[in-house]
Design brief:
The complex is a heterodimer of chains A (about 220) and B (about 280). Chain A is mainly alpha-helical. Helices cover about 85% and strands about 0% of the residues of chain A. Chain A has a single domain, classed as MetI-like fold (Orthogonal Bundle), CATH 1.10.3720. Chain A contains 10 helices and no strands. In chain A, helix 2 crosses helix 8 and helix 2 crosses helix 9. In chain A, about 40% of the residues are buried. Chain B has a domain of about 170 residues: P-loop containing nucleotide triphosphate hydrolases (Rossmann fold, 3-Layer(aba) Sandwich). Chain B has 9 helices and 10 strands. In chain B, the strands form 2 sheets. Chain B has a 6-stranded mixed beta sheet, sandwiched between helices. A 4-stranded antiparallel beta sheet of chain B has the order 2-1-4-5, covered by helices on one side. Chain B is globular. The chains are: A mainly alpha (about 220), B alpha/beta (about 280). Chains A and B meet through helix 6 and helix 7 of A and strand 6 of B. Bound molecules: adenosine-5'-triphosphate and magnesium ion (MG).
Chain lengths: ~220, ~280
């Protein structure tokens, strides 16, 4: 019953170069994660900067974020399907939600942990509060923001796969279709793609950028 | 060159939660003359940094006023350059970008760059212009920080234990450098230290501060001709004079902090009673 690895590799070949099923599915998933991740980073950064710089925002919005953060984003899918009349928008919503909270929390931490002495030094040079945020606090938080982005990607990717298993299109849906046809080799083939993408992004792309930034910021070990 | 006038300055920290307040000092009166090199010397916690921060405008006096020239100080401003104990350089900026950062409020990029180069040359760091802070030694970072403060061409240079974290050799090298800069630029300098020798080495006047009640204990004019030698009789004499008063102040602080554990004999062994004292506190 357990599918043979060799046949799975063959399925990969057919899926990409003969039928094109996998190419279509992969393209769709990649588009979704690209849009979802970008939105999560943008929204998360704005929220993080806001609650990191304003005490009032931290006590209100910040508390809300902490509460929402503990809800796995996939739990929102049923509600999102109703809210967005099913389909693509609902999946995107879940993906964005998955990535936004870790981005927000890390951005907030970065802003909160800026060394006060840097802010004092910049104040002696005549920078006002808005300039301090843009020119000192945000740049100083880049390493933390990057960790946030890496986590946001990981959460968003997992959320996307979960949502696609239930929803429509992409690698997740294709995996479910393959299961319905008892094509276990194809199921394994798709699982391979999913994990390879996860690995490449987390261990090559993000850890490379992180290394570079950390060494520039003088934080590398 | 500009004068600093400190008039009846009081600083009280309020602790809102415990409804307590703590007065660091309540009546500081002091005039720093134009072009003068003045040191604030005193035991830990006597309010040296607090006073410096008030002059810098980073902190507000509870009562009283500080004037730089004619101007009443309320906020920080580029007429006062500040050098902190930690270099406080922006880690994501190169050395020259750090110096330019202090100038960008006033000049265009190209002009700022030329200006920054000039000041990096003054502190002998032209070769490291494009390095990043984490690639520099502590002494070099501190020199960048000095260049950055000077580049704004402030009237007053405020330095809070700028060499406190450096080793002896680097420190004495920087003493020569600061003297050179002071002679070149003719800035009015207020220099915080708790090292007696450092104070005597550099200053025209030394303001000795104490705690409980906080305030100015005594002001010494240092008339020893420059360059000063720490083994010269006048130097040793002044060091002992200052030590005799500062020693009592330090004992007061230690007794306060340690309570019954304080043992005067042991402390005098730890901290020395003779002219080595300046190195140890
Ligand atoms: N933000 C603050 N809130 C409450 N108390 C403070 C605050 N800042 C300083 N103090 C108190 O004010 C006193 C003076 O502090 P300050 O830092 O000026 O001392 P200092 O002379 O610079 O000491 P050191 O040589 O250790 O740097 C200390 O007793 C300190 O505990
Ligand atoms: Mg201090």
């Amino acid at each position: 019953m357990f599918p043979s690895p060799l046949l799975s590799v063959k399925q990969l070949y057919t899926g990409f170069f003969e039928t094109g099923i996998l190419t279509v599915a992969l393209t769709e998933s990649m588009q979704r994660i690209a849009i979802g991740f970008t939105l999560a980073v943008i929204i998360g950064s704005i929220l993080g900067i806001l609650i990191g710089t304003s005490k009032l925002a931290d006590e209100t919005l910040g508390t809300l974020v902490i509460a929402l953060q503990s809800v796995p984003s996939i739990v929102w899918l049923p509600l999102a399907l109703v809210m967005f009349h099913g389909g693509a928008a609902a999946i995107l919503f879940v993906v964005v939600l998955g990535g936004t909270w870790p981005m927000t929390m890390n951005m907030r931490m970065g802003i909160k942990n800026v060394q006060p002495i840097l802010i004092r030094a910049a104040r002696t040079m005549g920078y006002n509060r808005t300039e301090l945020i843009w020119k000192v606090m945000i740049p100083a938080s880049i390493p933390s923001a990057l960790t946030g982005a890496r986590l946001a990607w990981a959460f968003a990717w997992r959320a996307l796969m979960a949502a696609e298993l239930i929803g429509r299109g992409g690698l997740g849906r294709t995996l479910m279709d393959a299961r319905d046809f008892f094509n276990m080799e194809m199921v394994i083939a798709i699982m391979i793609i999913i994990s390879v993408i996860g690995l490449v992004m987390e261990y090559f792309v993000f850890s490379k950028i992180e290394k570079r930034v950390l060494s520039r910021w003088g934080l590398a070990k | 060159m500009e004068q600093v006038l400190i008039k009846k300055v009081e600083k009280t920290f309020e602790n809102k939660e415990k409804k307590q307040s703590f007065t660091v000092f309540d009546d500081i009166n002091l005039t720093v003359n134009p072009g003068e090199f003045l040191s604030l010397l005193g035991p830990s916690g006597c309010g040296k940094s607090t006073l410096l921060n008030i002059i810098a405008g980073l902190d507000q006096a509870t009562n009283g006023e500080v004037y730089v020239g004619e101007k009443l100080i309320k906020t920080p401003g580029s007429d006062r350059g500040v050098v902190f104990q930690e270099a406080a350089l922006m880690p994501w900026m190169s050395v020259i970008e750090n110096v330019m950062f202090a100038l960008r409020k006033k000049m265009k990029k190209e002009e700022a760059k030329e200006h920054a180069k000039k000041y990096l040359k003054l502190v002998h760091l032209s070769k490291f212009m494009n390095s990043y802070p984490h690639e520099l030694s502590g002494g070099m970072k501190q020199r960048v920080s000095i260049a950055r403060a000077l580049a704004m061409d402030p009237k007053i240079l405020l330095m809070d234990e700028p060499f406190g974290a450096l080793d002896e050799q680097t420190r004495s090298m920087l003493h020569r450098e600061v003297q050179y800069i002071w002679e070149e630029t003719k800035k009015t300098i207020v220099f915080v230290t708790h090292n007696i020798r450092e104070a005597i080495m550099l200053s025209d006047r030394i303001v000795l501060m104490g705690t409980r009640p906080g305030g100015i204990r005594k002001i010494y004019d240092v008339t020893i001709p420059r360059p000063r030698v720490i083994t010269s009789p006048e130097f040793v004499k002044l060091e002992e004079d200052i030590m005799s008063i500062l020693g009592g102040e330090i004992e007061k602080v230690m007794r306060e902090e340690m309570g019954d554990d304080f043992n005067s004999k042991k402390a005098s062994l730890l901290y020395g009673t003779n002219n080595n004292m300046g190195d140890n506190i």
